[in-house]
UniProtKB/TrEMBL annotation:
<dbReference type="InterPro" id="IPR001858">
    <property type="entry name" value="Phosphatidylethanolamine-bd_CS"/>
</dbReference>
<dbReference type="InterPro" id="IPR035810">
    <property type="entry name" value="PEBP_euk"/>
</dbReference>
<dbReference type="InterPro" id="IPR036610">
    <property type="entry name" value="PEBP-like_sf"/>
</dbReference>
<protein>
    <recommendedName>
        <fullName>Terminal flower 1</fullName>
    </recommendedName>
</protein>
<dbReference type="InterPro" id="IPR008914">
    <property type="entry name" value="PEBP"/>
</dbReference>
<comment type="similarity">
    <text>Belongs to the phosphatidylethanolamine-binding protein family.</text>
</comment>
<dbReference type="Pfam" id="PF01161">
    <property type="entry name" value="PBP"/>
</dbReference>
């Protein structure tokens, strides 16, 4: 059961995006080789333009994982009527490697929030078998829960999120 001090509960990731789960694999997400994604930390959109490195530590080479990156706050956190917008899906990631060894099911779309502070959530699922995950029909109105159910992925094995908001010209300097 998720504790109230869990940053995924505090950030409403558990509840709005995924159900409570017990992490069983370590996932390390970094942008530009050195910017580690930690729950609730803020990144400028200009810092997350390129595909992040996502390492999966746990499982073994016979285990395969699916990574989903989603924004549950589209178009804005006060009225997220397009919830969720999926930014990236990688499948068939072998355990003990990084996402680049997997298969890109949906290409990376860099975060570009226009209104308010958005959460960008990385969720990792363990697959039952290789090449068993299907791409969603659209990026908007995505549901991480429904995607997991339709692809028989079960509960997540790891998750992390960061916040981002629109950059003004002054903030980019």
């Amino acid at each position: 059961m998720a504790r109230l001090s869990d940053p995924l509960v505090v950030g409403r990731v558990i509840g709005e995006v995924i159900d409570a789960f017990s992490p069983s694999v370590k996932m390390i997400v970094t942008y530009n080789s050195n910017k580690l994604v930690c729950n609730g930390h803020e990144f400028f959109p200009s810092a997350v333009v390129s595909i992040p490195r996502v390492e999966v530590q746990g499982g073994d080479m016979r285990s395969f994982f699916t990574l989903v990156m989603t924004d549950p706050d589209v178009p804005g956190p006060s009225d997220p009527y397009l919830r969720e917008h999926v930014h990236w899906i990688m499948t068939d990631i072998p355990g003990t490697t990084d996402a680049s060894f997997g298969r890109e099911l949906l290409s990376y779309e860099s975060p570009r929030p226009s209104i308010g502070i958005h959460r960008f959530v990385f969720v990792l699922f363990q697959q039952k078998r290789r090449q068993s995950v299907s791409a969603p029909e659209t990026r908007d109105h995505f549901s991480t829960r429904r995607f997991a159910q339709e692809n028989e992925l079960g509960l997540p094995v790891a998750a992390v999120y960061f916040n981002a908001q629109r950059e003004t010209a002054a903030r980019r300097r």
